[in-house]
Write a structure and sequence with these properties.
Blueprint lengths: L6 E4 L2 E4 H30 L1 E4 L2 E3 L2 H12 L1 H18 L4 H25 L3 H31 L3 H5 L2 H23 L2 H7 L14 H25 L4
Antiparallel strand pairs: 1-2, 3-4
Helix pairs in contact: 1-2, 1-3, 2-3, 2-4, 2-7, 3-4, 4-5, 5-7, 7-9
């Protein structure tokens, strides 16, 4: 039996809703799988040790890029899948590390993409990323205080003394670095839409040319600053 297809008329041409939505679902699942794989590769090849168990990676830039395209729920799913795969393959912190990775990525990705979803565009993405940085930093300060003593072999009082001088700047630096990369990646959404690799968003708003140039100049400066700071922390320079 053939699946029933519903159709509506647009002018004189019928549009098959079932077939269109099925195609969109395939594109979405494929896109999510590919982006999650790319995010994993960034962790596998470019994970940089900063302080003890704290490592710098660029997976959140890829995850939030995908969430800008597919929405906050998709961003959470990618974050969860990636945290699980990390735990199974390359992480040495077990289930606790998986929980911390999920909380870190999901708080950043979901907040940023939720704000962006309200009015898609570069300026909205930047506002969302700023909110995501703040959300991730606040969430990780709380959960580092609660969970870190379990696998750091330290008292909660000792961990509390590390929150402001260690965990706060680390999470801010990591989130700003990933945000800067995400802004640089943002124009490629248009390229993917034109290539019909993702569905075009009807609510996409165009940003003014001057605002776009200003945002990219500021972001480039922030990215260079973050990279320089990471290299200093790693004692490379």
């Amino acid at each position: 039996m053939k699946a029933k297809e519903t159709s509506v008329m647009s002018g004189n041409k019928p549009i098959l809703k079932g077939r269109q939505s099925a195609s969109d679902r395939v594109k979405k699942i494929t896109g999510l799988a590919m982006l999650t794989a790319v995010a994993y590769l960034t962790v596998f090849f470019f994970r940089l040790p900063i302080f003890g168990f704290l490592t710098m990676d660029f997976k959140d830039a890829v995850l939030v890029f995908g969430a800008f395209i597919f929405g906050p729920l998709a961003g959470f799913v990618m974050s969860a899948v990636l945290a699980l795969v990390e735990m199974i393959t390359i992480s040495s912190t077990g289930i606790i590390g998986m929980i911390m990775n999920l909380l870190s990525s999901a708080s950043f990705v979901c907040v940023a993409s939720f704000i962006h979803k309200k009015k898609p565009g570069l300026k909205s993405a930047v506002i969302g990323l700023i909110a995501g940085c703040l959300a991730m930093t606040a969430v990780m300060l709380l959960w580092n205080y609660l969970i870190t003593p379990l696998y750091m072999n330290a008292t909660r009082e000792q961990v509390a003394q590390m929150l402001i001088p260690t965990f706060l700047p680390f999470n801010l630096l990591k989130s700003v670095l990933n945000s800067s990369i995400a802004v640089m990646l943002y124009p490629s959404i248009r390229v993917l839409e034109k290539a019909k690799l993702i569905s075009k968003r009807d609510t996409q708003k165009s940003d003014s040319k001057a605002a776009t140039i200003g945002i990219f100049i500021f972001t480039a400066i922030a990215l260079i600053t973050c990279v320089y700071f990471v290299l200093v922390l790693m004692k490379v320079i």
